[in-house]
From TrEMBL:
Lineage: Bacteria, Bacillati, Bacillota, Bacilli, Bacillales
Basic and acidic residues composition bias: residue spans: 161-174
Record-given protein name: Cell surface protein
One Pfam family this sequence matches: NEAT
Record keyword Protease present: no
Gene3D superfamilies for the chain: 2.60.40.1850
Amino acid sequence: MKKMMRLSVFMTALLLAFMLPFSNAQAATLKDGTYSVNYNVLKAEGNAVSMANDYWLKPAKVIAKNGKLTVQMTIKNSSWVTEFKVPGNGGYVDTTVLSTNKKANTRIVQFQAQSLSKPIKSKIHVTVKSADYDHDYTIQLKFDESSMKSLSSNSTNKSAGEAEKQQPSKESTKTSDSSTTKQEENPQTGDTNQTGWLLVLALCSGGFLARKWIIKH
């Protein structure tokens, strides 16, 4: 009896092991649209927050289109952060500057990302002439996917660059934020129900095997 029960538990665990990665992969897929997401700038290794974290404004904007992700960030103290590079072409490539505000000393940049699930290792160069400071640094961009919020419905025909150049006013931003609080971060699909049915099937199969063994003995 104990052997049969162990077999049932093993089969259930095995099915769950196959189902969970599939479900997580589906949940991580973003529909075409624009999202906001919080993040931190970490040191080159580990999870310690870098001093450079204060140079990046939060949250970031993520534009999902045709399975591709475009990340847009605002850097403050822009004159100090003279270089900002991300992985690409087998090495590191410069991020694209969308706009610069010299008065506020900020600039908006964007880059392509394959995924936000893992930290994105990046390179920056910091120069502060008044303090005779000139150094290169490696940082990590760690995104909090649980904080992701939808800023729009399905994507429009505009490209990511065109969308960013037309920055919304403060009033439109407030309206957008209030209207999106009711939207789910990642709309649920039938994947959750499918997982539940598979779990029920696994439990029923285990119970059936246990009952069959009891009848024979």
